[in-house]
Amino acid sequence: MTIALPGMAARRAPRVRQRVGRDDIVARIGLVALLLFLLLSVVLPLWGLLSKAFQDRGGGFVGLGNFVAYFATPGLSASAWNSLSLSLIATLICVTLAFGFAYALTRTRMPGRRTFRAIAQIPLLAPSLLPAISLVYLFGAKGLMTPLLMGNTIYGPIGIVIGSAFWTFPHALIILVTALSLADQRLYEAAEALGARPARIFWTVTLPGARFGLISAFLVVFILVITDFGVPKVIGGSTNMLATDIYKQVIGQQNFQMGAVVGILLLLPAVGAFVIQRIVERRQAAQVSARIVPFQPRVRPVVDRVMFVFCLGVSAILVGMIGIAFFASIIKFWPYDFTPSLRHYDFDRMDGGGWASYLNSLELAAWTALVGTAIVFTGAWLVEKTRTLPPLRQGLQMMALLPLAVPGLALGLGYIFFFNDPANPLRFLYHTMAIMVLCTVAHFYAVAHLTAVTALKQMDPEFEQVSASLKVPAWRTFLTVNVPVCLPAILDISMYLFVNAMTTVSAVVFLYSPHTTLAAIAVLNMDDAGDVAPAAAMAMMLFFTAATVRLSYELATRGLLRRAQRWRLR
After folding, report:
1. What SS3 class is residue 331?
2. How far is Cα 524 from Cα 508, in angstroms, rounded to an integer?
3. Cα 164 to Cα 129: distance, rounded to the nearest angstrom
4. pLDDT one-digit tens code per residue, 313-341
5. Is the peptide bond before 335 cis (omega within 30 degrees of 0)?
6. What pLDDT does residue 569 have?
7. H helix or E strand, kind and range, residue 341
8. How far apart are CA 198 and CA 379, in angstroms?
9. Domains (ranges, CATH) in the chain?
């Protein structure tokens, strides 16, 4: 029996208040640090971009003069129409194919579903430059399948649409697989009981049930295509796009003001699509009932065979696009000498940065994964699990999602204006590896933040309440409870950042120096110099590295996750 002595509660109270106060101070410091990070990495560079668009070359305010000059130039104003029209066409093709593929994976009993799902993720491991290079070998002047174009050229709208649809395919597939996996078996049983035929069930039950997933996939792919730089740069030919206009204005003509104008024009459709997507996601949350009966597909021999052939064809295209680039990189001279050779992998003899650029990409990816994961997860924990300064936490949540609507080219251009300003004390970071790490983390911050927040939301707030009642410091709860429980999400974030840092082009194309050239930039430079085969070889090195790291990650973390997640097992 415990006897409470007089004054015991009074003596303990100050310690509890002291501990709570200490945790509050730590949380406030962390939130302020996160605010500074997001201001420096996202908000202020974007402000630099916006302000530059309304200035002349001397820094004077000219209002909308730069925008008027842009639309008065026929060649430049046509870029906006090209970007919108070709992005819509590529998005329609990509989403249609991805929906059929996702339907086959989730609504049929066809064989090889796991294999097809793995093959569909291949474009995620390659830079967007690679499919454009493959299309050159397939449909270029000396391409294997050039006669199929019937006199048309791959350099232009056709190449942009095909290349864009290829590399955005897995992004749409992930969303649509999730949407089609949430079907309610009862709806299909009711439709069959009423005598509805399979085609009518598809149009009245399947499509309406997946409409929000279709809208989300359409908007995500549209944002990716309209803001992509790699595909139109390599295979766009004389077709001007907003993304390539920024590059030409900044790198080719040193016209930073006009580049800022194009950056804002590129930002507008991305922001609009992002806003619509957020509205759709809020409505989508109410579509799943708590009494849902998961859909179980039945064996339908005819449908299963048709969808198998469809998935086999799409998978052949995905593998073939990678395979043709690999084949071109290991032969002597396309298309005259198919003798095996590794001469194109001797990057030190080529313009573009040599093997040093590949090592720089590894360094960038490693630092981005390490630093980015720590910042993202800690920031998500501060926003989601602390209770101090609610207005600041809400503001940080909005700032964390801002990069999702910012094209990489616009963000990179903003970094030039902000960090290269002589009045900026951080100007010493310009043209260093540090600024590229900072820009890459900022570019992919939103998706990683949403992943971390989703994992933290699954944890009951009682963990923090019990820890506070036991006088356990918040940082100890973070390290011993939050991190182990959310370890799968943390590892996924690190892998996401690593792979994207290896293959990104747009976010860092304005920030590298001769000593910090990256492999993806080397691909771009070698292609510009006419060294297409070495460019394909470097792109394949990025693909092989990402695939190897991904496989090694799966094997290395299996035991770690088994130990860290042992609490889930009975």
Report:
1. strand
2. 12
3. 10
4. 999 999 999 999 999 999 988 888 889 99
5. yes
6. 53
7. none
8. 48
9. 65-96+112-286 (1.10.3720.10)
Its pTM stands at 0.83
Report which of 90, 116, 112 is spatially closest to residue 101, judged by C-alpha positions. Answer: 116
Return d(Cα 521, Cα 440) in angstroms, integer. Answer: 14
Q: Report the alpha-carbon distance of residue 473 to residue 26 in Å, rounded.
A: 10
Mode of pairing for the β-strands spanning 331-333 and 337-340:
antiparallel
Q: How far apart are CA 434 and CA 424, in angstroms?
A: 16
| Residue 550 CB neighbours (<10 A) | 15
CA gap 288, 292 in Å, rounded: 7
Find, among 293, 288, 359, 340, the residue nearest to 518 by Cα.
359
Between 519 and 485, residue with greater pLDDT = 519
Q: Report residue 36's pLDDT band, with 50, 70 and 90 as the boundaries.
A: very high
User: Treating both helix axes as pointing N-terminal to C-terminal, what angle do 8-38 and 390-401 enclose, rounded to 10 degrees?
Assistant: 30
**Other beta carbons less than 10 A from residue 400's beta carbon:** 23
Please report, as a single letter, which amino acid is at residue 212. Answer: F
Instruction: Please give the Cα distance from 318 to 167 (Å, whole number).
Output: 9
Query: What value, to the nearest 5°, has the Cα angle with vertex 475 and ends 474 and 478?
Result: 90
The pLDDT tens digits of the residues spanning 73-123 come to: 777 778 888 999 999 999 999 999 999 999 999 888 899 888 999 899 899
Give me the half-sphere count of Cα atoms (radius 13 Å) on the Cβ side of residue 47.
Answer: 10
> Under DSSP, is residue 548 helix (H, G, I), strand (E, B) or coil?
helix
- What is the structure's pLDDT at 185? 67
What span, in angstroms and rounded, lies between the C-alpha atoms of 468 and 466? 5
d(C-alpha 520, C-alpha 505), whole Å:
6
